[in-house]
Amino acid sequence: MTLPDGREVFARLKPLNAANADDCTDAPGGVTAVEDADGFTLDNGLLRLRVDRGGRITSLRHGGRELVATSLNDWRLYNDVNPQYDAWEVSRTYERSEVRDAVRGTATLSRADAACVEIHIDYAFGHSRATQRMVLRAASPRVDFYTHVDWHERHRMLKVRFETNLLTDDILSETQFGYISRPAHASHPFAADRYEACQHRFSALCEENRGLAILNDGLYGIGAGRGLMSLTLLRAPLVPDETCDRGEHDFTYALYPFATSFALANVAAEAARLNQPVAVLPGRCVPAPAPWAEGLGAMLETLKPAGDGNGVILRLYQSLRASEVATLHLPRPMRVTPVRMDERAPLGETLCAADVPVSLRPFEIKTLRVEAP
């Protein structure tokens, strides 16, 4: 994490926990940046990137293998005119209406030390401007893109394309509690109709033993083709509001490659870390143990007071298409009772323990009432 003075520090934090900055260690070193006439080469031992002068990634190697077919982080601007349902529809032929060479990017190396490398990118297109920080940290498995856009377009759509060499027929996109598989091709009408679809915090293209996920903190539209993901950043419809989305926007997306099966890649957990980064606050804290879930795909999603005032409610879900017995770790032995989602009726026996086994079916949501013994 980054302190207000710019120093990168490292702390092993379990969910819902805290640490004092002076108890943390300096972030591990090992990230390098080399600049030449054509661009930049970044390397942290896990990822090796080649970035051109326009801010596009022309090479990304992970686990010794190349992932890029053409380029990643390639910004494109499209005309976006929809006679009906202007704000709700995206034309199935939008790729034919690209405004060629509309987005101009200029990349410079803004930070290069052993803990972190940053490339600053200035974009200009139409009546709009954008800035981006491409960040690679030491020992980090992902590349983060912190983006600010001052958007003043009419009937335009801004996308960022990621053209990979992955061979797959499907794209996996997160839903509220799990994920859905959709076609990543247009070989038949059902697949062709999925030219733009929705997602939550991630989408991924996967082979059996490797893949690439795009994580985000609030960008919900994505298109897919064979080896391609196209993340929608902004649109500018005029109906029903001709000033829709005009102004300044801040968002973050990230590239997260993995050299395992999707089930072992912890994509949902990494997306959660992007959306809930460590907060840096003034003062001191007293670190205390807190509940956390351990398992292949078990995610602790909710911690809240019970509606009737008796104990607290924990809500877990299984984020993969897999059955498992996860473990809920509590600070001390507590009474744990499975209940309905409305918290009104028990659904199983009460256990009293600090480490509670929780049986989960694929994508199952489970609600637990936790009370003092």
What are the salient characteristics of this protein?
373 residues; mainly beta; Beta-galactosidase, Chain A, domain 5; 2 domains; 9-stranded antiparallel sheet; 6-stranded antiparallel sheet; 2 helices; globular
Total helices: the number is 2
- Side by side, the strands of the main sheet go 9-10-11-12-21-18-17-14-15
CATH superfamily of the largest domain: Golgi alpha-mannosidase II, domain 4
**Rg calc:** 22 Å
Shape: globular
Element string (H = helix, E = strand) = EEEEEEEEEEEEEEEHEEEEEEHEEEEEE
Strand count: 27
In round numbers, the mean pLDDT is 94
What percent strand?
over 45%
CATH class of the largest domain: Mainly Beta
**Secondary-structure arrangement, i.e. CATH architecture of the largest domain:** Distorted Sandwich
**Spans with pLDDT under 50 lasting ≥5 residues?**
none
> The CATH topology of the largest domain, please?
Beta-galactosidase, Chain A, domain 5
Q: Let me know the largest β-sheet.
A: 9 strands, antiparallel
How many angstroms does the end-to-end distance come to?
A: 37 Å
Fraction in helix = under 10%
